[in-house]
Amino acid sequence: MLVLSSPRLRATHTAELAEMDVSETTEDLAEWDYGQYEGITTEEIRETVPGWTVWTHPVPGGETSEEVAARADKVLGRVRTALPETDVLLIGHGHFSRVLVSRWLGQSPRFGVHYAVDPASITVLGDERGEAQIQHLNIPSN
Question: Within 13 Å and on the Cβ side, how many CA atoms surround 51?
Fold first, then answer.
C-alpha cells in the first residue's frame, strides 16, 4: 500500500494513531494556505468582508482555489499511476480533501463546498466502469 501524508503534525499523528506506515510526506497534501486569514474565523473575516468564504472569495497572501486544485491534481496523478499496482491511502486536511474529491470527479475545486469532511473521517474514492465516483464519504473513523 502506498501511504502519502501531509507533513503537518496533525496529519502524521493521525497516521500514527491509525497504525499506518507513511511511505512519503508531501507538501502537495498540505491544507489550503489561508495566508493573512490563518487563525482567523470566518465570522471575524466577515466583519470586514461580508459573505466571505474560502470557496468564493480571495485569500490575501494565500492560495487560490485553482492553486489548491493544481496540488490536488498532482496528487491524483500519483494516485492514478499507483492504483493498478496497489491501494493508496492519503492523509490530509479538510478543505484540501474537499478540493481533492471535487477534482477526482472532474469538478471545479469550488464544488468542494458541497462535501462535509470531518476530522479523522474516511472517504473512499473509486470508479464504476471507468467513471469516477465517491464510494464512501465522511465516515467516522471510530
Answer: 2
CA distance 59 to 71: 17
Q: pLDDT tier at 18 (50, 70, 90 boundaries)?
A: confident
- Characterize 66-76 residue by residue with b for buried, 16 or more Cβ atoms within 10 angstroms of its Cβ, and e for exposed: eebbebbeebb
pLDDT at 107 over 80: yes
Confidence of residue 141 (pLDDT cuts 50, 70, 90): confident
Distance of alpha carbon 48 from alpha carbon 43, whole angstroms: 9
pLDDT score for 45: 98
Going by the DSSP 8-state scheme, the letter that residue 12 receives in this structure is H
Strands 131-139, 122-128: pairing kind:
antiparallel
The residue type found at 53 is T
Read off the DSSP letter of residue 38. Answer: T
pTM of structure: 0.93
Residue ranges of domains in the chain, CATH in brackets: 2-30+63-139 (3.40.50.1240)
Measured at the CA of 12, the angle between CA 7 and CA 16, to 5 degrees, comes to: 160
